[in-house]
Amino acid sequence: MTADSPPRRPGVDALARIGHPVPPLEPADASPHAFPDGGTWRTEIPSVEGPEALAVVLEESARLDLPVHRISQGSGVWMLTDSEITEMVESCAERSVELCLFTGPRGTWDIGAATRTDSGGGGLRARGHDALAGCVEDALRATESGVRCLLVADEGVLWTLHRMRESGALPADTTFKASALIGPVNPASYAVYEHLGADSLNVPSDLTLGHLTEIRRVSRAPMDLYVEAPDDLGGFVRMYEAAELIRRGAPLYLKFGLSRSPGIYPYGAHLREHALATARERVRRGRLVLDLLARHGADGGMSPLGSRLPGDLRRFPAPEGN
């Protein structure tokens, strides 16, 4: 295979030899978008809950030669001390890895019981003014400590933080990542999140390839997708689709989650061994995905390490005053 040859699709040569038909790729399905650095994909290790887990991820990624563009934490800024945030900021800066921390209270950790009903109630959003204010406080505290990427699980919080960024209350280079907990499932909702201020958006890992193509016809905002999703998000494993996920969803963050693993939010020392073991295994899962891409000649197009900004995106005009 030459550098200019197209990627090899899984099993296609063997299937052709026995006369089994293989659906053709449609060029029109490919995303026309890329990151501003020209890359089509980046990597993310999620659920890195503190400095110790981060150290494991950085050590293991170096050992397995796994390039990491971003690590994200799910328990929230308020679950970290100032010194822990500073340590994580400094460790990521040394490796040119983006650090993304979750903002504020959300439904499952609030006093409301509706999120535990079969209907899910109001979902995992920030309930009331106090929860919104808590997210704002987390954003201010994190950015003052040098964090430049914030995870958000509420549309109102996202719009509020975007307005703060526009007004200068938050650093202009702060980016907002829409959580998988509120991931958009159609092109119109994806575009709305972009307009509300999202710089990258988690989409549910059960969206079809066709759904990704539909989204890319209306928005170029970077997409985050679990190649392997944790059980509370479905437990899907889509490793063999990685090349096609990139082709359809670019610009795309490949997220390496872990199925068949108990949740760890909100994290504390009582979950230490589990958190460190799963952090190590997430890196290994990432290495498996990149090895698979390499075997099929589909590992080209990765953004340079240290790249983090999304490029120019479309926004709703922010009102002045209130």
Short description:
The radius of gyration is 19 Å and the shape is globular.
Would you give an account of this structure?
By secondary structure, the chain is α/β, with parallel strands linked by helices. Helix content is 35%, strand content 11%. The chain is built from 9 helices and 8 strands. Strands 1-2-3-4-5-6-7-8 form an 8-stranded parallel barrel, surrounded by 6 helices. Helix 7 links the parallel strand 6 (200-202) and strand 7 (223-228). Helix 2 runs parallel beside helix 9 (272-295), helix 4 (128-144) crosses helix 5 and helix 6 (187-196) crosses helix 7 (209-216). The longest helix is centred in the last third of the chain and has 24 residues, at 272-295. The radius of gyration is 19 Å and the shape is globular. The mean pLDDT is 91.
What are the key terms here?
322 residues, alpha/beta, 9 helices, globular
Topology of this protein?
Blueprint: H1 12-17, E1 41-45, H2 51-63, E2 70-72, H3 82-94, E3 98-102, H4 128-144, E4 149-152, H5 155-167, E5 175-178, H6 187-196, E6 200-202, H7 209-216, E7 223-228, H8 242-249, E8 252-256, H9 272-295
Parallel strand pairs: 1-2, 1-8, 2-3, 3-4, 4-5, 5-6, 6-7, 7-8
Helix pairs in contact: 2-9, 4-5, 6-7, 7-8
